[in-house]
Specification:
It is built from 31 helices and 10 strands. The longest helix has about 40 residues, at about 460-500. The strands form 3 sheets. A 6-stranded mixed sheet has the order 6-5-7-8-10-9, sandwiched between helices. The chain has a two-stranded antiparallel ribbon with strand order 1-2. A two-stranded antiparallel ribbon has the order 3-4. The protein is α/β, with parallel strands linked by helices. α7 runs antiparallel to α17 and α13 packs antiparallel against α14 (about 285-300). The chain is elongated, with a radius of gyration of 37 Å. Helices cover about 60% and strands about 5% of the residues. This is Solute carrier family 26 member 6. It comes from Equus asinus asinus. It is found in: Membrane. GO terms for molecular function: secondary active sulfate transmembrane transporter activity. It is a multi-pass membrane protein.
């Protein structure tokens, strides 16, 4: 056991001195004291195959969460808040749906469809209460890069006047977007069913923020053609943004520029009013909706399209369209982009969902979120929608206006349905420049992420490197290739950081059992005769050689040179032994004959050779320099897994000097149990595995070795 003692108190400070005493325990004694036993693995697959009423009900509630929470919905407490929240979100959803459809390269009405079907499907299958599913700028610009590259304007030029057949172009792009949405949904549902929700963990926060910042820059650039009234041919690839910036800006339409500028100023002023009066207003001012209504009325009354050449939204058909099966022949062209969009959309949704869940005290199931988003995109694709995720701005509004559940989402989708059926055609004269201005103003939050550069420079420069590489790769390579390059770089950076970990020799801090790097702590002192070596990362094939080299360097032992000199001296001894045996044999042949046996040869040899020649092959016997320590403590606390290269490196440590037998015979016990695949298991020979560096040092001091270095490991 261990004892606790309370010492005397300091008369000046009143603080008491405490002393904790406990005996030195090795692994075997610790397991006997704690009655260790191996844990038998549970076969979870057996429960998956069980068939019962309870199991069927649990599966139904797991994959259709609305059946679990809707019967217990507190109508009096939550209904009013959800109604107001749903109305507020719908007011934002309308202009954003129209605007983000332009980002996707589609007619605006398909943004309204994408704001209805997926939202209602998520109401049935989602587990987050506060995120607002629907159109989102990053997803829309990713879809737009696909539609504009696979259905460019050049493919729909009319022969007579070289104008673009917009009807055929839009039909082709809608077909591409709906097939893409179905494929994204299939990816997300499949990943969710196989519990692959952890895939988003490979997208670190700096990567996601750098990616969304680059996407916001691309969104900003893509809207310039609507702000300046330019007619640009569709381009995609690494130089697409440079092309948009450098070409045709002098051909701007003045009326369009003035319209966009006025709309932007109005949106900014109303946003400032919202921020200033938010304490006094029950609901925020619907600035986008009011701006759209005012711009539509002015455009219709003044005739902006005919008098000033301002491009407007155009025909918005009333009513819903029937479901259409996707063109499966397009899947091969879309599979890579679909997977990237599926991962990005899920990453955005789950990150926001977990933030709100932590704030309000409930749990979000990442795998069910994948299924819910997948079904939203799958069903939406059948009804001519493009891929969606969740919007941060709408989610914040849904929470701040009293939303408690996804009933708010259902209310907003029903409001959008009314607009699609009856009110959509009223926005036919809405200038596209106003939608572009609304998009640009809403990018403020993502563009403010440029401040991450300063904060990451102070906090973690490796994360800053990931942010910058992600941003630059996304800008130059577009969103799909940029994401792939960013993920590959972040994973390679992890490998690189494990390849070059921090190695240190530990020393004991005076009057404690704490060991720290002697290079960083000036008062830490090495224990005489004992070297304590630590690596900050696990040892595996990528850094095993560096581990061995650094160990030799830190310990001041040139093992390779010692082994080379040792081999040369042993070879000389062998040649001298053969020469003396030959001389002994000649002397015997000159005298009386006597049968030669191995015992007699050994006896005669011992008489003839010097004691140093038969003393063995130790460093001391060979006259070679010996290390100034008798025990080496390897701190393996950072070891998370073991491979064969790691085992060989540890065995090479055994080879310093003469390979020493363990106390029970055989090879070094730690290496033996590592090779057997029972790392820190009951099969360990217990003499050389300790729970702390201090215990290992105490053992090494209690059992000093006069021979070669004794490796001791620390778990």
């Amino acid at each position: 056991g261990w004892s606790w003692k309370q010492g005397s108190s300091d008369p000046f400070t009143g603080r008491r001195d405490y002393q904790v005493e406990r005996p030195l325990l090795n692994q075997k004694q610790l397991e006997e004291l704690g009655r260790w036993s191996s844990v038998t693995g549970t076969h979870q697959w057996r429960t998956w195959l069980q068939c019962s009423h309870a199991r069927a009900r649990a599966l139904l509630l797991q994959y259709l969460p609305v059946l679990a929470w809707l019967p217990r919905y507190p109508v009096r407490d939550w209904l009013l808040g959800d109604l107001l929240s749903g109305l507020s979100v719908a007011i934002m959803q309308l202009p954003q749906g129209l605007a983000y459809a332009l980002l996707a390269g589609l007619p605006p009405v398909f943004g309204l469809y994408s704001s209805f079907y997926p939202v209602f499907i998520y109401f049935l299958f989602g587990t987050s209460r506060h995120i607002s599913v629907g159109t989102f700028a990053v997803m829309s610009v990713m879809v737009g890069s696909v539609t504009e590259s696979l259905a460019p304007d050049e493919d729909f030029l009319q022969d007579l006047n070289s104008t673009v057949n917009e009807t055929a172009r839009d039909a082709a792009r809608v077909q591409l977007a709906s097939a893409l949405s179905v494929l994204v949904g299939l990816f997300q549902v499949g990943l969710g069913l196989v519990h692959f929700g952890f895939v988003v963990t490979y997208l670190s926060e700096p990567l996601v923020r750098g990616y969304t910042t680059a996407a916001s820059v691309q969104v900003f650039i893509s809207q310039l053609k609507y702000v300046f009234g330019l007619q640009l041919s569709s381009r995609s690839g690494p130089l697409s943004i440079i092309y948009v910036i450098c070409w045709k800006l002098p051909q701007s339409v003045v009326g369009t520029m003035v319209t966009a500028l006025v709309a932007g100023v109005v949106l900014v002023v109303m946003k400032l009013l919202n921020d200033k009066l938010q304490r006094h207003l029950p609901l925020p001012i619907p600035r986008e909706l009011l701006t759209l209504i005012g711009a539509t009325g002015i455009s219709y009354g003044v005739g902006l399209k005919h008098r000033f050449g301002v491009d407007v939204v155009g025909d918005i058909p009333a009513g819903l369209i029937p479901p259409v099966a996707p063109n499966s022949q397009l899947f091969a062209k879309l599979v890579g982009n679909a997977f990237a969009i599926a991962v990005v959309g899920f990453a955005i949704a789950i990150s926001l969902g977990k933030i709100f869940a932590l704030r309000h005290g409930y749990r979000v199931d990442s795998n069910q979120e994948l299924v819910a988003l997948g079904l939203s995109n799958l069903v939406g694709g059948v009804f001519q929608c493009f891929p969606v995720s969740c919007s941060m701005s709408r989610s914040l509004v849904q929470e701040s206006t009293g939303g408690n559940t996804q009933v708010a989402g259902a209310v907003s989708s029903l409001f959008i349905l009314i607009i699609i059926v009856k009110l959509g055609e009223l926005f036919q004269d809405l200038p596209k420049a106003v939608l572009a201005a609304a998009i640009i103003v809403n990018l403020k939050g993502m563009l403010m992420q440029f401040t991450d550069i300063c904060s990451l420079w102070k906090a973690n420069r490796m994360d800053l490197l990931i942010w910058l590489v992600t941003f630059v790769a996304t800008i130059l390579l577009n969103l799909d290739l940029g994401l792939a390059a960013a993920v590959a770089f972040s994973l390679l950076l992890v490998v690189f950081r494990t390849q070059l970990p921090h190695y240190s020799i530990l020393g004991q801090v005076p009057d404690t059992d704490i060991y720290r790097d002697v290079a960083e702590y000036s008062e830490a002192r090495e224990v005489p005769g004992v070297k304590v070596f630590r690596s900050s990362a696990t040892v595996y094939f990528a850094n095993a050689e560096l581990y061995s080299d650094t160990l030799k360097q830190k310990c001041g032992v040139d093992v390779d040179r010692l082994i080379s000199r040792k081999k040369k001296l042993l070879k000389k001894k062998e040649l001298k032994l053969k020469r003396l045996l030959k001389e002994e044999k000649l002397q015997r042949q000159a005298g009386p004959l006597e049968p030669v046996t191995p015992a007699s040869v050994l006896l005669l040899t011992r008489r003839s050779l010097s004691p140093n020649l038969l003393d063995g092959s130790t460093l001391k016997a060979l006259g070679l320099p010996q290390p100034d320590f008798h025990s080496l403590v390897l701190d393996l606390g950072a070891l998370s897994f073991v491979d064969t290269v790691c085992l060989k490196s540890l065995k090479n440590v055994r080879g310093w000097g003469i390979p020493r037998k363990s106390p029970g015979g055989g090879r070094a016990p730690v290496v033996t149990q590592l090779e057997a695949g029972h790392f820190f298991d009951a099969s360990i020979t217990k003499q050389h595995l300790f729970a702390s560096v201090h215990d290992a040092v105490v053992f090494a001091l209690q059992h000093p070795r006069s021979g070669p270095v004794s490796p001791v490991s620390v778990s």
